[in-house]
Structures are given as structure tokens and as C-alpha cells.
């Protein structure tokens, strides 16, 4: 068998969605050269697409730092230069062929999925010690010099459609074909390799220990991967070229500074093999996007991949999480300093994304929205930009994937650039929460009219859910520039009154019958209390 196999630059492995709804596979080079012809990625699951997109972003940023819109070698000088280059490439409507080809020709040998020296996103096992273990392929397991071994992961554990493991709780994800494949083709293995490196749980390094230089026992626990630390928000263009460009953040938008370096993982001469806790690094977005959170070595059997050897890799310190431009942020009090600090907001399976607007826009929001505002300032004054929000939720100790979430939100250009509009949105969210509390209280009072237990809050919860659904439609209209804040505010109160009136009309007989044992609560009183408090809130 050849030493080097399946080069990701040339071999078709990235799933691309065409305008007619068909999915086509292309290699990295053609993905960039034809990005303007495709709508989006079309992989097995959305988070797999996110992992592949982050690879594309890292390549795009690297190329834009080194080549101009005409494919000439030209390094960026400052952040204004970066903005001008972005707009020049954006105006072309596609990536420059000479720049793309020159970059991939220079680094072609670093993109082999299987290679003795530079296996892509993996480590080579040449020179490893091997211990006897019947659970591993061929009855042996690879071991680092410090004694930490690599876990064996069958492909089902890495496949995000299944995410199966003996030490994971049962998850709702099954293979799309309804089966748990024991082996996959090289192209699918490449996609799941990126997914697992970006969103794997902590089991890769669980129960692994080594003796450090001071003779102390330390854990090589992999911890959470960097992208899984919070919800990720990404702008979506009209085609794949625009999506990649809009997410190619070319400088630190909070400080208007270029990155200290731009060198993705594969440009390093050698990947460090053992676990590494990263506490301080140069601000290098391509390097962060291609960070090896897991030390992985795919195991092939013929022309199929049956699993992988996995161990803990690079674990970014929480102090470096601010570097991620796609994180939705919120303020919390630091346990040690007692100061308020910005941290990524975890994915939620219960809250619609419009209710998290304060974590998206503004000075304390995601950097990516500030970037989009900067680059589109002169390009699309009256347009709107769709954003896709994805996230992953783990179980206890981050050792089991419980859910994967996705939502969308559309923001107008005016909203992104107008801090007053953003402040109004945050204020209206607070008002909506206040109104929802009154609706919940009204529902609980109605429960008393029905002689239900005081603790039975199902009616209140149901009415609040109806309110959020209806008012969410109006709030999204405001964010996309289709209504004013006055229109939104009026809708907030009109919807609240409509929901309570409809509930009374539909349940009038039951509510009247129940008043005998209601502990002083009756239908008219419940309605009066609600309307009085709502009117008071409306006058504020």
C-alpha cells in the first residue's frame, strides 16, 4: 500500500449543495474555485458542516493574508488594508484561481489523509511503543513515552450521526441509513475526523494519567473542545463563496489589529504528540481553527476506515476563549477576582435565539457581527444578513452528547450599525419577559379557578409558550428592519391581551364552575389583576 493516500486537495470529499438541491463532492481546491457556484455545504449533519467550514475559513484567512484579489503575493500591512482586500475580493465574486492553486500546490503534501510523516489532522504512530491489549485492533495499543495510552474508538463513536459509546448515555442520533456502520469510506472518514476534533466529548482522555517532570501524577483528560465551549453564530451568504468570506475575520475587530501570525496547523513542521494545555498563544485565527483538540490516528482496513486511536490533545485555556469571533458572549462574575468577565454562552435547547439578542450584537456580543458590520458598511446599506446559530450540549462532566441545536436569525444592516437599535432590542426583550411573568401569573390564577393544585403551573407555562411564539415573529421583524420599535412594543401588549382573552373565551364554562373552591380566586378577578398589571407596565 502506498505511503501517502487520499489527498484532500484533489479527492472529492466535501459535500456541496448545488442550486438545484443536489449534493456533489469536491476536493478542497475545487471547493474554493467553485464556491460561488454552490449554495452551501450539504454534509450528514449541520455540526459536521460547521467543522468543515472552520477548515475553509482558516484557509481563506491564510490566503487573504498572503495574496491580493489578482493572485499576486502581497502581505497585509494593517487592518485598513485588510478591509480593502476583503472588499476587492468580494467584488470579484469568487476566489482568485492563481492564489488558490499556488497555496495548495505549496502545501499539497500536508493534506494526505494517510501519510507516514504528515497525516492530515492526525499524528503518526511510527516509533510508538505498543502494549498488548485484546480490546485494540491486532491486540495492541499505542502508548506515549510518558505512559499515556491512546484509546481505541470504533467508527460508530466518531460518526456524529450515531455518537455511540459504552460510556455515553443513550442519544437520539442514529445513522441516517438506520444502521451503525462498522466501516466508512475515506471521504466520510475525513468529514467525521473534522467533526470529532471540533465537537468530541471528554472521553478521549478519560482516566489517562502520566508522571510529569516533577514526579507528580497528572491527568491528560481532553476536556471540552474549543468550538464546543459555547454557541457559534455564523453569517450566511447567498452562496458558499459569500459564506466563507463573511466568516473570514481578518483582524481583531475589538482592537483593529492584525493577527500576530497566520499559520494553520498543517504548516507546522511537526505536531506535538502528547497532551498540551495552551495558556498563551499568538492571536492566530487559522491556527486556532485547526487546533488539534484530540491526538487522532485513523485506522484503515483496506479501503475503509473502521475506527481511530484517540488521546487528549491541545486544550485551550478559558482565558483564550475571547479569541473565537463566533462565540455568543455573556457576562458572569469570576470566582477568583470577583470581577465581571465575558464568557461564551452555552447552547440552549429551550430558548429561541431571538431572545438572546444581547449576546449577539453590541460591544459585549459576538465579534463576528462587528466584523460583518465593518465589511458590509459600504456594500449593502439596506440589506439583511442571515445568521446561523449552532451548538452542542453535553451531559454530566461533558462525557456525553445530549443534543445538537440549530437556529437562524436575520439582522438588518441598520440594526448592526445602530447601537440605539440594539439597545432598544435588549430593552424590549426585558419588557417581553416582564409581560410573560404576568401571563404566567394569570394562567396560575386560572388554575385556581379550575380547582387545580397551586403547584400546577401547566396553564401558565402553556400560555407563556404561546406568547413567545407569537411575539417572536414580531421581534424578528424588528431585527430584520421590517418594523419599528413602536410597532414591536404595541404588538407585545396586543398579543398578551389576545392570548388571555382567547383562553377565557375557550374555557369560560370550566372557569366559572370551578370558582367555588378556588380559595378566593375567580375568573373576573384573574382577568382584572392581569389587565391592571399589564396596563401599568404599558405606561412605563
| Secondary structural class | alpha+beta
Q: Number of helix segments?
A: 14
**Low-pLDDT segments, ≥5 res:** 164-179
Helix % is 25-40%
Radius of gyration based on Cα positions: 27 Å
Largest pleated sheet:
3 strands, antiparallel
Strand order of the largest sheet: 3-2-4
Average per-residue pLDDT, rounded, comes to 85
Strand content range: 15-25%
CA(first)-CA(last) distance:
76 Å
Tally of DSSP β-strands: 19
Shape: globular
Written account of the structure:
The protein has 540 residues and is of the alpha+beta class. The protein is built from 14 helices and 19 strands. The strands form eight sheets. It has a three-stranded antiparallel sheet. The chain is globular, with a radius of gyration of 27 Å.
